[in-house]
Write a structure and sequence with these properties.
The structure holds 2 protein chains of 2 kinds. By secondary structure, chain A is mainly beta. Chain A contains no helices and 2 strands. Chain A has strands spanning 11-21, 37-43. Chain B has 4 domains: 1-48, no CATH class; 57-197, Immunoglobulin-like (Sandwich), CATH 2.60.40; 201-435, no CATH class; 465-618 and 657-681, no CATH class. The chains are: A mainly beta, B mainly beta. β1 of chain A pairs antiparallel with β1 (11-20) of chain B, so a sheet runs across the interface.
Amino acid sequence: MQLYWSQVKGAKGYQIKASYEQSIANTPENWDDATMLVLDTIVWGEE
Amino acid sequence: MLLEDLIFSKTYRFAIRALSERGEEHNSQWFGTGNLHQWTDMVYYDMLDKYKVPSIIAQKANITKNSFDLYLDRSYAKSGNYEYTADELEEMSEYFHVLTDASGNKVWKADRLVIEPASSNPDAKVPTQYQYPGIKLEESMFGSDGVAMVSIEGLDSNSVYNMYTYDESIFAEKAKKKLSVQQCLNYAQQNLDVTVRTKGDPGEPIVIDPVPQDTMMYTESDALKSISLPIPATSIQPKLEEFMKSNEYAENKVFYLRGGEAYFLRAGLEVYKGFKLATLPEDLAEGKGRAKVFLYYPQVLDISGGTSPSPAFFMLSRNPIGSENPMITIDIDKIVLEDLDFTIAYARNIGDGSKVVTNSYFMNMYSKGMGSTVEEISLKNCSFQGIVGGFYRVQANYGVRIKNFIIDNVDFYNGGYYSTSGRRYNWFHANPEANVNINIWENFVMKNCTIYDNPLGYMFNHNKQQSIEWPASLHYNITLENNTFINLNTCNAGNSMIFNTRWIPGGSTFTIKRNLFVLTRNDNDTERDMVQAGCDIRTINGSGTVTLDFEDNYSTNDNLTSGQIWSNTASAFDYTQKNTFGSLAKNYDVTWGDAGAEGLTVKVADISAKDLMVQPNPPHKFDPANVSHWDHQCDGIDGTVTNVDKEIRSDYQPGMVDLHFKNFNNVLVEKQVGAPKWRNQ
């Protein structure tokens, strides 16, 4: 898949984090940020 | 950013934050994870399911505590008894290699067989030779018919194993791109959905003794919270969750609750093993009554958040865990519930306000839940109050097959009324258009049951009304016998339909006998609509055959339309023009029961509900300008108070119903129509 985003004024770059989860379950316990890993860090001018 | 070689069928979630020139503490927050309260701040994408793959593992057999046999069929044209369609062969040929075997037959290239413990029991033993990369499938193992038999031994009992074959050359090709083993298998794997549960000994029943608690703990947004319980009760969730997860317990374990005591579930219990939950028979014999099972759902007990929660007692199957393939079908033996009174405490309907309505179920599924084959769901001698959203709902994309769905002597009341038109989901809601193998009505029997003034939607319903290419072996076999339906859904005629399944699979059978349909209200309750619809059935797919065995269904003689019970006369079972059982013989091959086509007619008994029963009318006067929680509520339906609201709501409004017959000199007694218990003198 292709991800797109746009730059906001003043930011030096972006971090994207991602995970694949078993599902989007309907209980708050399943929403565990710790399972998400930083996928990429983009700093403008440093690609 | 282009992400490649992702895993089929998986859900990927994303979050983003902006980085600041001024240091880390000035970075923005993460956006995209959501927290259930801001649904729009959530980014996830579902990968599509994998294309059709060769089903090399064609059959499982001789399952013992520690072993089973697998029959592998690498034939090009078939897998066991299943012959691939031309479209399937074309699709599979695009992705998988075909060889010519020693007998000169075309076969799929299947090189290795892998056995893995399922994610529900990751520690289950697998002898090394079966673990990835798996055992080599030698040419000499396959006969000239393309079939090989492999015995798998040395496994743990009570454990679930997933298994697949794969094509090594596809794997090797992907490995050149330096993909992970999982990513390579993602392309090379053939079977996607095969699982086996080894046998085990269920052992002695477990009696869960009452240890009532008056508060319960739960987590929300990573915070541990406590909430008061309206009626102290004993939690059965931890014990049943432990049973589901642990391979120490075999399937079909029996759990007994003590008669007359209060127990509770906290949230939808994921059911992926067969079990029985019942009141201890000795307590019933001593007259202690059934155990009560409450659903204490935190967001229903406390509505200060103002959300509209969707609690269910049970969730069928489970979500795949980690890298587990969601297309794996879980085998589940018998799910048996007996002699229990289920209640969703504080269940709210449209009369409490649209923002706090409880979208509650007996059994639901996760939207990404795995498929399952269930030997039996059996509900016997139970009652359900507070089911507002739907009773049973399939919502997965994968096959859900319930071989036997038996509901015997179960009462349903004080539920429904999700909206003023009386419907959110339905009683039995299937989803065959998502997967042609879904069948929850393979042998569906509902008998001796009572539904009283519980506006929930259609009795039998597909998610969408569209033609479905069912396999020729799939049929519906639906039996409704000796049920009493009183004011099934008087909110809206359309939503009160018994059968809303415009397409049905060929070879299906409908057995509808000795059911009693009643519409009744107090003389001053004139704004309450007296409506009841029958069916919308238009097309029989496949063989175009159906068996209709209808006989001795009756209504009382009040609140009729044109002299019969169906307020929408074109939906009557016996309407012959179109879109009903009565019209099917015009275009299809109908096999009739003993009563013939005339059996479709619901006959009218020469007695009114008020003369027949002690007190059948909804006790509260309905005012459409002032919709109330109590519009479809009563104290109980047998002359005793069973409505939990009486104990927990300060605004309780009493009003008793008693469906016992007071007149025994009528055709309904003579022909033994409706639920038997109301006819007992």
